[in-house]
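Record 1 of the preview.
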Amino acid sequence: MLVDFHLLFLYRVVVMAITIKGAELPPWLLLVFSLPTRRASQRVEIWRKLQRLGSVSLGNSGYLLPNNSSNRERFEWLATTIRGYRGNASVVEVQSIDNFSGSQIVDRFVKARSQDYQELLRELRQYGSVSRANRSSSRLGRLRQRFQEVVAIDFFHSPLRERVEALLDHLQNGDQSSPPSKEPGEVARKDYRARLWITRPRPGVDRVTSAWLIRRFIDPQARFLFATKNQMPRNAVPYDMYHGGFGHRGDDCTFETLQKVFRIRDRKVGVMAPGSRHPTRSWPLLFTSLSS
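->
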């Protein structure tokens, strides 16, 4: 289904707008859910998706993510999936947890990502121990892709991030058998002309404004399609699809990732970037930019 993102944006932001007057968002989102005992395979599926989102477990209480519009959208999407399996699920904003301080929760996120980075370091060192003639450039590419996936959920910047990146760069620069793969900031715009751009159903403000950015500054002939990971057409460009393509990287939402990757410095884009992250506070600025 091709989408008119301008109309969709107007509906979500104008018709469904929620006004928050001077109130700070609670810092955390909590997903609480239950599944029927006979849904063992679905339980494993949900657990794996929670891991990919970078959430941390509170035992039987549920799973936490930092509170922003993108994480809310992802938790709500997962809650919808759970209900489709005849389970119960709710997404709750949490101000504080009585037996965990804010710093303790942050430490849990950092520890989880540090474990991911440690595993990457182990694999990179193993890769580096092989003679250059026997190294697989495709394997190094997969390790870099995995690194980018971890960075996307490294919400509080683990100190190991720079070590992994430095080792990746060292190994890549030392491998003369094939040219280095492009870094996120080195894409060629000509490769993204007249393309089909694909994203998940039920877009939030980040993905709607990203579509505007793509059409306005990257690919004037862009077409857009909603699809699941099992329905992706060949040669489509995914954005905010969880895996591959353009999405969240570190603290950047999809809109900001596209802005940086394609080096877009237009004034309107600078206005819209914070709105993509916190739409309920700054949607008038977004509406003004979209309409002009």
